[in-house]
Amino acid sequence: MASMERVKSLQAKHAQLESQLDRERTRPDPDLVTVQHLKREKLRIKDEIARMA
User: Fold this and answer.
1) pTM score, two decimals?
2) Which residues of 9-34 are buried (b: 16+ CB within 10 A; e: fewer)?
3) What pLDDT does residue 1 have?
4) pLDDT digits (tens, 9 = 90+) for 26-50
5) What are the Cα distances from residue 21, in Å, to 1, 3, 5, 6, 48?
6) Residue 4 to residue 8: CA distance in whole angstroms
7) Are 34 and 24 in contact (CB under 8 A)?
8) What span, in angstroms and rounded, lies between the C-alpha atoms of 1 and 31?
């Protein structure tokens, strides 16, 4: 059951990162380094979720 809680936690973090990424992309002058960092972190979380499934 702990793994299901972990997956839910990771999914919430993934959604939070998506929101941050959307905000950064829509800024007048988005920071490309920040965008890349957020994308990498989202991918890392997505991979972790996939390994747990």
Assistant:
1) 0.88
2) ebeeebeebeebbeeeeeeeeeeeee
3) 52
4) 999 999 999 999 999 999 999 999 9
5) 30, 26, 24, 22, 19
6) 6
7) yes
8) 39
